[in-house]
DNA sequence: TACTAATCTGTAACCCGTTACACATTATTC
DNA sequence: GAATAATGTGTAACGGGTTACAGATTAGTA
């Protein structure tokens, strides 16, 4: 590995001069610069980021904590972040938390020790006080953490409303909701959006709402139970696409035709929704855009700029497909 | 940020002693150790990984290069790697190459500069000579790079054979193949497996094989064309699950029933295959296991152990589902 | 011409750990 | 009791950059 000393020696200058050339700061004579650049090329010198980090106390690295990259919602999120950051000269450390506070803490510890410049966090459990301990720029993505921390998320409530309204529009007369886990902001707000619309209906029963844990199998199970105890239900709003898929499976197992007997709409707009039969209607999130902007905000924070807008709410878009076409 | 000096000062010892306590090496008196540990706890001292890396010339970080985390095959692969490595004390840098040699090179440069300890690479384009330039432990995953580099991959050819045989067994009389991109080891070998079985059939035509680029939309297009020009085809082996899905879409658009009119089988065993209707038969890969073992091999390499087995071939498992049930 | 400002370059301290080496003390062995 | 081994601890160099500071030239100005 060639070091700055090797280059200095080769170019017959001091390491300070080489450093100045590399970083384009301070005065350097044109001829000297050329000599140094020639030596850099000749020796194929690449400055050592670790040494630089040690001095500068920053690493040009950021961490992204997601619950589970295996969940189809997150790859695109991570991709949006990574794409932007690499182009800004940052590398991205991937952290799968499984929503486990211990793991989250572990990852934050590691980040701190590695002089990571900042973190993008998707979490329900991390609190502002914990983040304060680590004293690094943080941006919340998909779920808010605290009003002081810049957040990039979907307007879940209005999305929930749109979903319920759409089901009413296509003629559903009894609409159930497969809700995500309790006390998770996303699922709660989507549920509230549904309630906003449905509570005005005289037929509404609280037993039309069941909890599905954002998981396909679980959603299939609870949907089946729901449809068995409430055969009058002809429309289902699932709290995310994966659960909508579970609902689709449930309908199938009960020999219900979608959309004729049962209309189904999901939430998220992951690619999966185009791959089912019938294709799933959904509330699509601008995932890539959102994550990219989160990454932008993080780099701004790292560069010491204030981000004026703490709350960045993105609209969801209704995508009408076969599963609600009636 | 507390440093080792702070701790030393607090415990009234030298930094060397603190270092010895932290790393549990060298002689340290029991009482001294306790004093130091108390100071560490009190000050919540976490050693600075960057400084350590600089001296040790290793970073407890590895890079993983995948084409695109957004492709449903890779998240599980990455997860297998990350899970194993975090537990071994390594963090994982995620790199999306888009199969672009420039990006691959850029990522390798960054890794080198950050003293990354090793890399796990999924690539068709990276060559051994390039890797040699970087002089770091490398393991190839999913696709081989060179016989000198430990490889963890599926037995694609035998998988291709199993797929073709299965279609014959369920009674298909004309079997087409949607092949992945040319000169990509995986697609070529799956194709060869198909040929191994099909070439003995007197009905075989080379026009039964079309190329689909591992992409759903493209696969749907070429499958449709294939079925239109060869309506006698009643079985399709797609080079991966995403293309099998495209084939399913094509069948649908031609009003063909799956599996009655057309049996379809994919390759990979991603979760998606359980989510379609009908559910897709596929050759399932032990993705998580394979990637975990790749990570194990990489850490072994990093620790200076030789990995005896360069070629680690994993079997695929035939999963029979509705799409080939006839 | 004299003086100030701008340009150029090198020396050395610093970032924060790790460890070779030296020295001191205590334990073991004959 | 002397010699040797084992234990305990500190000093300082080192890893590879960055930059404050000083000193030397050159350019610009009155």
Automatic annotation (TrEMBL), chains A, B:
Residues in HTH lacI-type domain copies: 2-56
UniProt keyword terms in alphabetical order: DNA-binding, Repressor, Transcription, Transcription regulation
Recorded GO MF terms: DNA-binding transcription factor activity; transcription cis-regulatory region binding
Keyword Transcription regulation appears in the UniProt entry: yes
Record has Nucleus as a keyword: no
Transmembrane feature ranges: none
Listed InterPro entries: HTH_LacI, LacI/GalR-like_sensor, Lambda_DNA-bd_dom_sf, Peripla_BP_I
Coiled coil (residue ranges): none
Matches recorded under Pfam families: LacI, Peripla_BP_3
CDD domains recorded: HTH_LacI, PBP1_Qymf-like
Stretch forming the signal peptide: none
Name of the protein this chain belongs to: Catabolite control protein A
Organism the protein comes from: Alkalibacillus haloalkaliphilus
UniProt gene name: rbsR
């Amino acid at each position: 590995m060639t070091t700055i000393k090797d280059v200095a020696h080769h170019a017959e200058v001091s390491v300070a001069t080489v450093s100045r050339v590399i970083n384009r700061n301070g005065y350097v004579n044109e001829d000297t610069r050329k000599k140094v650049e020639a030596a850099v090329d000749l020796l194929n010198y690449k400055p050592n980021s670790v040494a630089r980090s040690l001095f500068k106390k920053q690493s040009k690295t950021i961490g992204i904590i997601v619950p589970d990259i295996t969940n189809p919602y997150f790859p695109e999120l991570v991709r949006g972040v990574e794409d932007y950051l690499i182009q800004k000269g940052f590398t991205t450390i991937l952290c799968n938390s499984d929503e486990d506070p211990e793991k989250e803490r572990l990852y934050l510890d590691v980040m701190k020790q590695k002089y990571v410049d900042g973190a993008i966090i998707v979490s329900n459990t991390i609190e502002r006080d914990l983040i304060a301990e680590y004293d690094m720029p943080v941006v919340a993505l998909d779920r808010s953490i605290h009003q002081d921390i810049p957040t990039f998320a979907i307007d879940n409530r209005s999305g929930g409303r749109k979903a319920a309204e759409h089901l009413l529009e296509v003629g559903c007369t009894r609409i159930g909701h497969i809700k995500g886990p309790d006390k998770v902001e996303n699922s709660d707000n989507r549920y509230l959006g549904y309630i906003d619309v449905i509570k005005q209906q005289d037929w509404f029963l609280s037993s039309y709402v069941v909890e599905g844990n954002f998981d396909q199998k679980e959603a299939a199970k609870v949907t089946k139970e729901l449809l068995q105890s409430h055969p009058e239900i002809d429309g289902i709003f699932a709290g995310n696409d994966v659960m909508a898929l579970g609902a689709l499976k449930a309908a199938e197992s009960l020999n219900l035709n979608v959309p004729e007997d049962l209309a189904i709409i999901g939430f998220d707009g992951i690619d999966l929704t185009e791959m089912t039969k019938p294709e799933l209607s959904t509330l699509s999130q601008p995932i890539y855009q959102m994550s990219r902007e989160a990454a932008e905000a993080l780099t701004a924070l790292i560069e010491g700029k204030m981000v004026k807008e703490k709350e960045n709410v993105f609209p969801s878009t209704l995508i009408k497909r076969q599963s609600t076409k009636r």
